[in-house]
Write a structure and sequence with these properties.
The complex is a heterodimer of chains A (531) and B (176). With 531 residues, chain A is an all-alpha fold. Chain A contains 16 helices and two strands. Chain A has a two-stranded antiparallel sheet with strand order 1-2. In chain A, helix 3 (33-61) packs antiparallel against helix 4 and helix 5 (115-134) packs antiparallel against helix 6. Residues 1-16 of chain A have low confidence and may be disordered. With 176 residues, chain B is an alpha+beta fold. Chain B folds into two domains: 1-49; 61-168, Ctag/Cox11 (Pfam 04442) (Sandwich), CATH 2.60.370.10. Chain B is built from one helix and nine strands, in the order αβββββββββ. Chain B has one helix at 3-39, and strands at 61-70, 74-78, 82-85, 90-99, 105-114, 122-127, 133-135, 140-149, 159-168. Chain B is elongated. Chain B starts with a helix and ends in an 8-residue tail after the last strand. The chains are: A mainly alpha (531), B alpha+beta (176). At the A-B interface, helix 6, helix 7 and helix 8 of A face helix 1 of B.
Chain lengths: 531, 176
């Protein structure tokens, strides 16, 4: 992080006014959207490393059948915490980091609408993350209930469960405040002439994501609050003994949980919608249809939640409704994939690292979307529910979707952020290693799932051994490949070659066309005029 | 209105939405209960009952019930002369037996089938023929037979005759 501070230190010297603090206090007190964006990005990398370490531990245990390293309780804690940390600690903050860095620059605003609130939104996160990780050291350990925290298992956990619930509360508060900030910034702070339909698509996807967050994060907060009062204050929301219903928890959770899927995916779509046109040297194909498709996905995401729970015993009419609504989402998603591909059509394409990750995203995310369609079908889902097929499916959309988009975005904007160029060769190697190892981990899990291997179990039948070994080896490789990523970023910041003013020929949003590289500490104090 | 005021107003509105959605999460609880009650779809509250899914409703087999006694002073008859069943369906029929002798008598029923090869498809779950029956003097008894016709029954068989013959078991409360 000191390396990043250095970069900004130069900007600081040049401009000579911010805050008046130095060292760590500068980061604690900063209200600058670029500083906060940087902190979000590093925070999510730290959480990504912790969550990734847990993933490697999970795959170590699953390398061979039988119990090797961990007892089943600890294995459950690992899968639970891996999910929670990756979703709430890594993927969501990384895109908030992008939003902080880019939205003010892309709409021609001097900063976020609520700069101090922005600081607080970030600084809630380390505390929430500490609560999550500390729950491992509580009596009874971290909760081993799965990241979905289903009742009635949540009633049985030790103190770690309460730590997790409070962590979710704080993370949710951070997300809601951040989202309100983003919505206000986008709606009120645009430069003159920057109409909504002229905004870069990244801003659009974040505007819609922020609305989703404001709508559903409080519902999750409600669900975990009910869990908390069930545990300690004698309520029986989910306790059948007192007239409650555990299935109700699943309904409330997935009312949050499905929009959450798009909260994770949409900003990634936004990043990809910036990267692909830049390296195709063509404007994005079907801009307006992209905006409408994003909105349609967001609206539909509210009426499909029960496809996560086909097997709870709901009536066939309900299953049919949720099946049709879910398959309907393939239409706007298909529009987006079509538009990305059509943007590349007859473009003068080059394949630098950001574009490689964007192409990887396009292939792998679409594959994840297809397995999602397979799982949307009730009769198939009843067979595949809670198998590794589901694990493979959602890692294709979470890792190859959201994470690849984040990598694409980081390589794309790293020159703008730091003023330095990363090592292109190493970047490409990082892409290919990630791509190959990712598929090694998760492609084979489709086979395991179809053969009936259940998820969240530390032991398995001997017949699953070969694919599990391949999957585990892939996981170890993928983990090591991310160390290369860290090296690439750090060496870029420390001793990268100075980047060109416009390192990517086809990049055309305001941060590229109206601001120098690296972006100055304070930008657009006088708003640009957008034609 | 200054930009700052506009921002604050939007903040307030969005914060109200967030608080309202927190309430909405709790509102889902009564909504869920009402919806389940109105539509009767909460399977958690419904008592479980086992359902036989192996019934072949595409065809019907007539079971003709017959009864005989062999040198036994009993009146022995089925309560119905025939029943129509679907293969795979669990069915119970009853026979009535009356001991007309003024002394206890023990008997053993032996089943036979027509056609004979239907026997392997006729699965008796409960039958008075499984044990010896002792009737007191003048006693009247109703005795059940619970059976399933195997769905693998050849299509050519459309009726099965089930015939019981009671034999006296000598030396067991009988006089002969």
């Amino acid at each position: 992080m000191s390396a990043v501070a250095d970069t900004h230190g130069h900007a600081h010297d040049a401009h000579g006014h911010h805050g008046g603090y130095s060292g760590i206090m500068r980061w604690i007190t900063t209200t600058n959207h670029k500083d906060i964006g940087t902190m979000y990005l590093w925070f999510s990398f730290v959480m990504f490393s912790i969550g990734g370490l847990m993933a490697v531990m999970i795959r170590m245990e699953l390398f061979s059948p039988g119990l090797q390293f961990f007892n089943p309780e600890f294995f459950n804690q690992l899968t639970t915490m891996h999910g929670l940390i990756m979703v709430f600690g890594a993927i969501m903050p990384v895109f908030v980091g992008f939003a902080n860095w880019l939205i003010p620059m892309q709409i021609g605003a001097p900063d976020m609408a609520f700069a101090r609130l922005n600081n607080w939104s970030f600084w809630l996160l380390p505390f929430a993350a500490s609560l999550l990780v500390l729950s491992f050291f509580m009596p009874g350990g971290a909760p081993g209930v799965g990241w979905t925290m289903y009742a009635p298992l949540t009633a049985q956990m030790g103190m770690g469960m309460d730590f997790t619930i409070f962590a979710i509360h704080i993370l949710g508060m951070s997300s809601i405040l951040g989202s309100i900030n983003i919505i206000t910034t986008i709606l009120n702070m645009r430069a003159p002439g920057m109409t909504l339909m002229k905004m870069p698509l990244f801003c659009w996807t974040w505007l819609i994501t922020a609305y989703l967050l404001v709508a559903v994060m409080p519902v999750l907060a409600g669900a975990v609050t009910m869990t908390l009062t069930d545990r300690h204050f004698g309520t029986t929301f989910f306790n059948a003994a007192g007239g409650g219903d555990p299935v109700l928890y699943q309904h409330i959770f997935w009312f949050f949980g499905h929009p959450e899927v798009y909260i994770i995916a949409l900003p990634g779509f936004g990043v990809i919608s910036q990267v692909i046109p830049a390296f195709s040297r063509k404007p994005l194909f079907g801009y307006a249809s992209m905006v409408y498709a994003t909105s349609a996905i967001a609206i539909l995401s509210f009426i499909v939640w029960a496809h996560h729970m086909y097997t709870v015993g709901m009536p066939v009419t309900g299953q049919l409704f949720f099946m049709y609504a879910t398959t309907l989402i393939a239409v706007p998603t298909g529009v987006k994939v079509f538009n990305w591909v059509t943007t590349m059509w007859k473009g003068s394409l080059t394949f630098e690292t950001p574009m490689l990750f964007a192409c990887g995203f396009l292939f792998m995310f679409t594959l994840g979307g297809f397995t999602g369609l397979v799982l949307a079908l009730v009769p198939v889902d009843i067979q595949l529910q809670d198998t590794y097929y589901v694990v493979a499916h959602f890692h294709y959309v979470m890792v190859a979707g959201a994470l690849f988009a984040a990598f694409a975005g980081i390589y794309f904007w790293l020159p703008k952020w730091t003023g330095k160029m990363y090592n292109e060769t190493l970047g490409k190697i990082h892409f290919w290693l990630t791509m190959i190892f990712f598929n090694m981990i998760f492609f084979v899990q489709h086979f395991l799932g179809l053969a009936g291997m259940p998820r969240r179990i530390p032991d398995y039948n001997l017949m699953f051994e070969t694919w599990n070994k391949i999957s585990s080896l892939g996981a170890f490789g993928m983990g090591l490949a991310q160390l290369l990523f860290l090296y690439i970023v750090v060496s870029c910041i420390r001793n990268g070659k100075p980047a060109a003013q416009l390192p990517w020929e086809g990049a055309d949003s305001l941060e590229w066309t109206h601001l120098p590289t690296p972006a100055p500490y304070h930008s657009f104090e006088t708003p640009p005029v957008v034609k | 209105m200054s930009l700052e005021q506009q921002n604050r107003r939007l903040f307030t509105r969005l914060a109200i939405v967030a608080v309202a959605m927190f309430g909405f999460g709790f509102a889902l609880v009564p909504f869920y209960n009402q919806l389940c009650a109105a539509l009767g779809i909460n399977s958690v509250e419904r008592a479980e009952s086992a359902v036989n899914t192996q019934v072949d409703r595409s065809r019907t087999v007539v079971i003709e019930l017959d009864s005989n006694t062999h040198n036994l002073p009993w009146r022995f008859r089925p309560l119905v002369s025939h029943v129509s069943v679907h293969p795979g369906e669990l069915t119970t029929v009853e026979y009535e037996v009356v001991n007309v002798r003024a002394a206890p008598v023990t008997g053993q029923a032996v089943p036979s089938y027509g056609p004979q090869y239907a026997a392997e498809y006729f699965k008796k779950v409960e039958c008075f023929c499984f044990t010896q029956q002792t009737l007191a003097a003048g006693e009247v008894r109703r005795m059940p037979v619970t059976f399933v016709v195997d769905p693998k029954l050849p299509k050519s068989i459309s009726s099965i005759a089930l015939s019981y013959t009671f034999f006296e078991v000598a030396g067991r409360g009988g006089q002969s």
